[in-house]
Every structure is written in structure tokens, then in C-alpha cells.
């Protein structure tokens, strides 16, 4: 996200989720819920299924 100029805080605000949810996923502490995957998919214009193909 940094190369795109997007901080964790900005992303969390933009998709209306707690910043801890973004941070936990980035730090590989946990997977994300389907609703968050959908929000990320819409935000980045990608298929939300990409999240479930990634290893934790």
C-alpha cells in the first residue's frame, strides 16, 4: 500500500473499518471477514476472492 501512497489509517477510514483490522491482516495475525474482503475488493477494484487465496 505504501507505494500507492495509502496508509493503514487512510484505508481503514475509506472502507469504514477499524484500523486494527487492517493492521492485523497486514501483520498476518488473522484472516479477514468476508465483508472486509468485499470492501477491499471494491476499493482496489479487484476480485475479493484474492484474499482467500493468500496464505496467512
Automatic annotation (TrEMBL):
Species assigned in the record: Rickettsia slovaca str. D-CWPP
HTH cro/C1-type domain spans which residues? Answer: 2-50
Identify a single GO molecular function assigned to this protein.
DNA binding
InterPro entries under this entry? Cro/C1-type_HTH (IPR001387), Lambda_DNA-bd_dom_sf (IPR010982)
CDD domains in the record, alphabetically?
A: HTH_XRE
Query: Under what name is this protein listed?
Result: Plasmid maintenance system antidote protein
Amino acid at each position: 500500500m505504501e507505494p500507492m501512497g495509502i496508509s493503514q489509517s487512510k484505508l481503514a477510514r475509506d472502507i469504514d473499518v477499524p484500523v486494527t483490522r487492517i493492521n492485523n491482516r497486514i501483520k498476518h495475525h488473522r484472516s479477514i471477514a468476508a465483508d472486509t474482503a468485499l470492501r477491499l475488493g471494491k476499493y482496489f477494484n479487484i476480485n475479493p476472492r484474492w484474499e482467500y487465496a493468500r496464505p496467512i
